[in-house]
Amino acid sequence: MAEYSNSVSSEIPEETGKHDEENLSALHKHVMFFDRNKDGVIHISETFQGFRAIGCGVLLSSIASVFINAGLSRKTRPGKGFSFKFPIEVKNIPMAKHGSDSGVYDEHGRFVHSKFDEIFHKHAHTHPNALTSDELSQMLKAKREPKDYGGWIAALSEWKILYLLCKDDQGLLQKDIVKAAYDGSLFERMEKERQSKKQITTPGV
């Protein structure tokens, strides 16, 4: 399997707001895919384009883009006024971490290997390196914090979309797929695979 890099830095350089690959945490890389023009800000239209690029339908992409941007925009723009465009500032994405999550990202957005391995050690009972749909649901329930309804919904949405798009023929969500999702390399790969399939199925001119 390919190895997926996980930087330990926590911020994008303040002076530019643009992406410096060597100074990105895993969480920054996770969301950077959706910054389609790489200007350091993710707008609703870019979130929509990102979801479409990895294979989500128009309806799911529309709902997800509005839900995500509306939920994260204010958290990533401290001290700035409300905007109906709901922009997300990538450099501040660790501020938008929600409760009831897996704990794989620390407070700076860095990847915590022990927390990642814990997911499969505790919940992957059928196959040691994969989660079934039921095991995924059990994991989400185990991570719920009391009365953290927003966190419950966010975690459920993230994981169920990942499962829907990336489960294998046996209905398993493989460990290497989950790891790649955490640093965003999965999204790049999914987009390239979809583009390749389109080229194959498009009749030659």
Automatic annotation (TrEMBL):
List GO molecular-function terms, semicolon-separated.
calcium ion binding; monooxygenase activity
Entry keyword set: Membrane, Transmembrane, Transmembrane helix
InterPro entries with a match to the protein in the record: Caleosin-related, EF-hand-dom_pair, EF_hand_dom
Domain named EF-hand: residues: 22-57
List all membrane-crossing ranges. 51-72
Q: Which family does it belong to?
A: Belongs to the caleosin family.
What is the protein named?
Oxygenase
